[in-house]
Design brief:
Elements: H1 2-20, H2 24-36, H3 48-65, H4 69-74, H5 76-100, H6 108-118, H7 124-133, H8 137-166, H9 175-204, H10 207-227, H11 232-246, H12 252-279, H13 281-290, H14 295-334, H15 370-377, H16 384-391, H17 406-435, H18 440-470, H19 478-491, H20 506-531, H21 537-561
Helix pairs in contact: 1-2, 1-12, 2-12, 3-10, 3-11, 3-12, 3-16, 5-6, 5-8, 5-14, 6-8, 6-16, 6-17, 7-8, 7-17, 8-9, 8-11, 9-10, 9-11, 10-11, 10-12, 12-21, 13-17, 14-15, 14-17, 16-17, 18-19, 18-20, 19-20, 20-21
């Protein structure tokens, strides 16, 4: 009952925030913190493994379904830098700072547990704000890709650190081998399950059953990978990549249903996660008191760790991306144009001209502008993984002794989660508006790709109409056939203006059949152009969504009126 009340309350607060133009996550956290101090309030007891198994996989899977794998691959360098490199840098920096302090006696190994807990950012709020305010596409791609893999790196490091402190044995003793095993087998399991899912869907051919089966995929991928001691996070992500790409060839009803189902799941789980964060402040303080740890000491350490987390990301981001900005400025000032006949410029370098719109570039080597780097550096809000990992710290070690400073680590993790949400989450919209990031290049690229896709749609429609003209149905007057062909050609890109038949006629049946043939050919043409590398995957997805809505409109009208 308490769980239902928390979810309903979080949804209501989120709805109020949306109506007031506020950020829902922040308002939910603040209201939940206030609610936790009401007299007689009891904590919401949820096992940490349930949080990781029930909450995390659907959120990751939904993001992967809607994220283009070619886009992920093109931005793999910054994604790995932030999702793996920055996680490790943050974890070890926090461990060094926390173990150096004398206020709380943490060994480096115990402090590394804390570092692994607070290392992975949760990009839910950042991506939501960025989408609302129109961040450049590449920044959104990098942030989304980072959120898909940083949890895997942090949880693997967390497992190793906890095992070392608790005296437990891991599946593979060598940490590098364990990380490599987990990072390789997890995607293999997820991709395999994704292909099995697509195989089953082709045989189900039922949108309702396909949607229900799709809801089971993230949980199955996570549990299968964890049973094999691999990364459940990466398994879920790659299952989402495979199913998301393969679903483009499924029926329109399945795609439309899944889109709205997963949107609803995202809203539900995100509201619950932020409410869960806020509701535990009072009880974290009570656990600290039970552990006889003065609140002043814990507050001082928490503030220092929070400051470390807030500082280390900007420093790392500018170390990763700032070198490129500096190099481009130096080259711009000192280089001379490369001679037409060939040769090298003043800096001894050749410029490689890459056509971004060709769709064939495997890796995007463009750097971020300083404004984009500032935004990326300020998107380090912590969330569900930090809290779930903190709660997953065992109560005792292998010898039966209490796990050292468990309550302190959990309190610091809570402060870091709430602090980053309130500090970074509250100021991120202002920062994005202040920097006034230009999306002109994105708009030109999208316009060019959309025009190429529109040409492919028109060519596909022309081919279907040409076949209809050369091989018309029997028993229909030539004038009627010409009129049908003109109607479908005129409305091939706008289902809203398709005539509404009020009774079953031969003409209405031919119009509907021809129109659906055009939509099917257009869909196949888009997928073929995408697979050949001629069209951007995201542009294809946008137009496929439009075709799905057109087919849904046509089909519903025909079913209701014929």
């Amino acid at each position: 009952m308490e769980l239902i009340l928390v979810v309903v309350g979080a949804i209501v607060v989120g709805a109020i925030a949306n109506r007031r133009g506020l950020e829902p996550a922040l308002l939910i956290v603040v209201v939940a913190i206030a609610a936790s101090f009401t007299p007689g309030f009891r904590p919401l007891e949820i096992d940490s493994h349930i949080l990781l198994t029930v909450v995390l996989p659907p959120l990751l899977y939904s993001a992967a379904l809607n994220f283009s794998f070619p886009t992920f691959l093109r931005n793999i360098k910054p994604i790995l830098g932030l999702g793996v490199g920055l996680v490790l840098i943050t974890a070890f920096t926090v461990a060094a700072v926390a173990s150096w302090l004398v206020v709380v006696p943490l060994t480096f190994a115990t402090a590394l547990v804390l570092g692994a807990v607070v290392a992975p950012p949760d990009a839910v709020t950042a991506v939501a704000v960025g989408r609302k305010l129109g961040l450049p596409r590449r920044v959104m791609s990098i942030l989304t890709g980072e959120s898909l893999i940083n949890d895997a790196a942090a949880l693997t490091l967390f497992t190793l650190a906890v095992a070392h402190v608790a005296g437990n044995r891991t599946f593979i003793e060598n940490p590098l081998l364990l990380f490599g095993y987990s990072a390789v087998l997890g995607p293999v399991i997820g991709a395999g399950l994704g292909y099995v899912t697509l195989w089953l869907r082709r045989r189900l051919a039922n949108p309702a059953l396909e949607t229900v089966q799709g809801l089971m995929v993230p949980f199955a991928a996570y549990l299968l990978a964890e049973q094999a001691h691999a990364s459940g996070v990466l398994a879920v992500v790659f299952a989402g990549f495979v199913v998301g790409s393969g679903t483009l060839e499924a029926g329109y009803q399945t795609r439309l249903q899944e889109r709205y189902v997963w949107n609803s799941v995202d809203v539900l789980l995100e509201a619950f996660v932020f409410a869960y964060i806020g509701l535990h402040l009072r009880f974290v303080l009570e656990e600290l008191n039970a552990a006889h740890r003065p609140l002043v000491q814990a507050a001082a350490v928490s503030a220092l760790v929070l400051a470390t987390v807030l500082v280390i990301r900007p420093l790392s981001v500018f170390a990763m991306f700032g070198r490129g900005v500096l190099a481009r400025q130096v080259e711009k000032r000192l280089s001379v144009p490369v001679p037409e006949s060939g040769g090298r410029g003043a800096l001894g370098t050749r410029r490689a001209h890459r056509d971004r719109g060709s769709g064939r570039t495997w890796f995007d080597r463009r750097g971020l502008s300083w404004q984009e780097s500032v935004v990326v550096s300020w998107t380090g809000m912590r969330g569900v993984v930090t809290l779930a990992a903190a709660a997953a710290i065992p109560a005792t070690t292998a010898t039966g002794e209490p796990f050292p400073e468990r309550a302190t680590i959990q309190a610091i993790a809570f402060v870091v989660s709430v602090g980053t949400l309130l500090l970074q989450g509250a100021t991120l919209p202002w920062l994005i508006r202040r920097l006034d990031l230009s999306c002109a290049e994105d708009e030109a690229y999208v316009a060019a790709e959309t025009e190429k896709a529109e040409r492919a749609l028109r060519a596909a429609a022309d081919r279907v109409l040409a076949r209809f003209r050369d091989d018309p149905p029997d028993g229909v007057a030539p004038a009627v056939l010409a009129d049908i062909r003109a109607v479908v050609a005129r409305q091939a890109q706008d289902a809203d203006e398709l005539p509404n038949p009020d009774r079953r006629t031969r003409r209405a049946e031919i119009v509907a059949e021809l129109y659906l043939d055009v939509l099917s050919a257009q869909r196949a043409a888009l997928i073929a152009e995408r697979d050949a590398g001629q069209l951007d995957d995201e542009a294809v997805r946008t137009l496929l969504d439009r075709l799905d809505l057109q087919e849904a409109g046509v089909t519903s009208r025909l079913e209701s009126r014929l």
